[in-house]
Structure formats: C-alpha cells, structure tokens
Specification:
It is built from six helices and ten strands. With 222 residues, it is of the alpha+beta class. This is Radial spoke head protein 9 homolog.
C-alpha cells in the first residue's frame, strides 16, 4: 500500500476482519511519510504485518526511481521507530525454510539447529551450535512471500529503453476479458522463465510491458 493513501487503503481491507487498530493506522500514516523523508525514498509502501508470540513486525518497503530495483526493507515494533533490514541471501532463505512455528516478535532471538530439526552434532568451531537470528528469518520470509504472491497486472508498469521500470500513469485497469486470463498477470520479481524463452516465443511480446514472468505457466505446489 502506498504511504500517501494508506489510511484509506487500510479502511478498505479492514472489512475482511483482520486489520490494524485506529491508533496504529493513525501512527503509520504519519511515520511512513517521515520515513520517506528521512531515507529519501521516492515512494514508501506498507508491506504488511507479521504477528509474533510477543509482538508484531510492521514491514515497510522503500523504493527509488526504478520500481524494479532491489527495495530497502524496514521493520518496526511500534509503528514509530524503524530499523533497516539487511539484504537477503540464499543462505538466509535456505535456513529459514527449515524453521517451523510462529515468530517470537524479538529480532535478536536466536534459533538453534536443534530447534530446526538439524543434526544436533553439527557444531561450529569452538563447540558451539550454529544459530539463526529471527531478523534473518524475517528477511527471508518477506522475500519468499514477495516471490510467491508479488503480482502486478499487465501494463501497470513500463520498462524504458534504458532498463528502468516506472509506473504507467495511463493504466486504468484490465478489461473484463483480460482480467480473466492468467497471462495478464506477472510476478513482480526478477524474471526466471522469461530468459529461457526462444526468440520465436519472444516475438509476440512487447518489451515495454512483457518483461516479467507470467502466471500462465505456474504449477501450484501440492
């Protein structure tokens, strides 16, 4: 959700039965704008909330002029003070996939390899069990969710000849016919299958709009 239109957007999603309190919505509306000013972001999105046992993580993403560039992710425990999350790594994702159960709500909390069902005899030098901080798990979880459900409609963003991606201000939504097609939606992440397409398959694609992986060939897990 865009920071500038956050109060109205939160009102719309609150009808589903899960939302933020009026106090939290009021605080977020002002703190995200201050966050955008302090970090000099072009735009700030409220990503969402991950509930833990002892508290909740409120997540925001900061964007520059290129909407497809890596985003800066921040979290807050009180919707006022924000901390920058480190960039995600493949190791973080691999470790987080082994974790089960709820978050604790404490970014300094450490999971041991015993807790994630790894071999208990696998020790680091010095005889200490390797641990994973909850902050690293948080980063990896956000990345996994973005890859799975970060979706945009075709035409909502345009890629310029220089390679940067910007919001299409002329986009007014998909037609009813196009909205029913999976090919009208893209994963808003770095494309993978697009690079494997042949030149013949790419011939009918518009490079300004079809620069991401389509949902039409996705196979649901399970």
């Amino acid at each position: 959700m865009e920071a500038a239109s956050l109060p109205a957007a939160l009102e719309l999603v609150a009808g589903g039965g899960a939302g933020l309190s009026p106090e939290k919505r009021a605080v977020l509306g002002s703190s995200l704008l201050l966050l955008q000013r302090d970090y000099r972001f072009e735009r700030v999105w409220f990503w969402g909330c991950i509930q833990g046992v002892r508290g909740a993580y409120y997540i925001a993403e900061g964007l520059g002029s290129d909407c497809a560039a890596p985003r800066s992710r921040l979290y807050s425990l009180n919707c006022v003070e924000w901390s920058l999350l480190p960039p995600v790594t493949a190791e973080m994702v691999a470790q987080a996939e082994q974790l089960k159960g709820r978050f604790q709500g404490d970014p300094s909390f450490e999971y041991t390899y015993t807790e994630i069902k790894e071999d208990a005899e696998r020790l680091l030098e010095g005889g200490k069990e390797p641990t994973i901080k909850e902050e690293a798990r948080l980063v990896a979880t956000i990345e996994q969710i973005d890859k799975a459900v970060g979706i945009i409609p075709r035409g909502a963003f345009l890629k310029t000849p220089r390679g940067s991606v910007h919001e299409n201000r002329n986009f007014e939504g998909l037609s009813l016919t196009e909205a029913k097609k999976l090919s009208s939606y893209f994963h808003f992440t770095v494309p993978v299958s697009l690079k494997n397409k042949t030149l013949l398959e790419k011939a009918d694609l518009d490079p300004s709009t079809d620069f991401l992986d389509s949902l039409e060939h996705d196979i649901p897990q399970g």
